[in-house]
Amino acid sequence: MTISDPRAFLTGLFQAAVDAAQPSLCLPPHLPSPPKGRTIVVGAGKASAEMARVVERHWKGQLSGLVVTRYDHAVPCENIEIVEAAHPVPDAAGAAAARRVLETVQGLTPDDLVICLISGGGSALMTLPADGLTLDDKQAVNRALLRSGANITEMNCVRKHLSMIKGGRLAVAAAPAQVVTLSISDVPGDDPAVIASGPTVADATTFGDAREILERYGIQAPPSVRAHLRDAMDETPKPGDPRLDRCQTVLIATPQASLEAAAEIARQAGISPIILGDAIEGESRDVGFVHAAIARQVARHGQPAMAPAVLLSGGETTVTMRGKGRGGRNGEFALALAVALDGAPGIHAIACDTDGIDGSENNAGAVVTPDTLTRANAAGLKARDRLADNDAFGFFEPIGDLVISGPTMTNVNDFRAVLVLKF
Q1: d(CA 328, CA 353)
Q2: Exposed/middle/buried for 7, CB within 10 Å: 0-12, 13-18, 19+?
Q3: How many CA atoms lie within 13 A of 413 on its CB side?
Q4: What pTM, to 2 d.p., does this model score?
Q5: Distance (Å, rounded) from C-alpha 213 to C-alpha 222?
Q6: Contact 108/177 with Cβ under 8 angstroms?
Q7: If one looks up domain 26-253 in CATH, what number appears?
Q8: CATH number of the domain located at residue range(s) 6-18+256-420 in this protein
Q9: pLDDT digit string, tens, across residues 112-155
């Protein structure tokens, strides 16, 4: 099979992965039945506004509510208020919205229903500091965690224990109402307790776990945070807590489903798909080096499949910031992959965040071609130097290899595809 335009083919795989996780497709089949009482819609995440719009279009009856999404991710809704806030570092708009969300679900009855719409990014977007903490405290810890190399499960453990709304506390506030949470998973393993720090899900982690994570990564938290994690008595609700008896969580979209959608497109094109995993974690550059080694094995030895083949993977890698450059984890993966491949013929790749935003830049990710390093050298760009400076954005932008999709209104995290053609 010959692919005449590898970049277009890889971009098509990315789009298929994104399309499979669109709320318009995956949310309606999971809507609960209308209650006897009121229906309140709350939520947070990069996809929450689009999820709210889909709920409105398919709901039979009255509803109201409030969801928080990232700046530039709002969509028009009639009865559900959409508030925009900052991500990945929270701001005052998110804190104010989180307090209103908590107030919205209080005072309900057993006849009422809360539909909670949760997607990736919700931890930062719905920030409500615990008593004795300030937004500045939360911002400082968040910035340190983002630079530390901690994985999403570790980061969200800390976030839960500095919050009045995460780690099941939103569901406790909504009791005795029924709570149905519809989640789009952006975390390795699809654990509902980790997605957006599980505001309606029991939390098995403890204050002690949060302290240990800060120590492990050498994070010097503000004194108020250290005191809170040491002295606070109000633990998050644990599995078996009767206050969560009327809570249900449904995963409506997952990284694996999106990888399978991309795999089907590859099969239709005569390309063998190899799904390496939907929950890959670790340093972005290390994951890039490993993917390069597997791609070379396909090209040289036909293992684990003969070319033409495409390696597909998802999950959430991390970047430990040692330099001063710009770029997210998918760009860093792509740059490390390019370095490791060193112009190997017939190997092309794409790495993007399915929400359309890689880190804090305006690109979803980047593509890699056999002549990436040649073109970069001609532009005076040294790949290894840029990788050492964590400057994937500064490497790929001048050579036109950024992928810019704009907000996709969903989020099943990283999508990587490495295409190995016969050569």
Answers
A1: 9
A2: middle
A3: 27
A4: 0.93
A5: 15
A6: yes
A7: 3.40.50.10180
A8: 3.40.1480.10
A9: 999 999 999 999 999 999 999 999 999 999 999 998 989 999 99
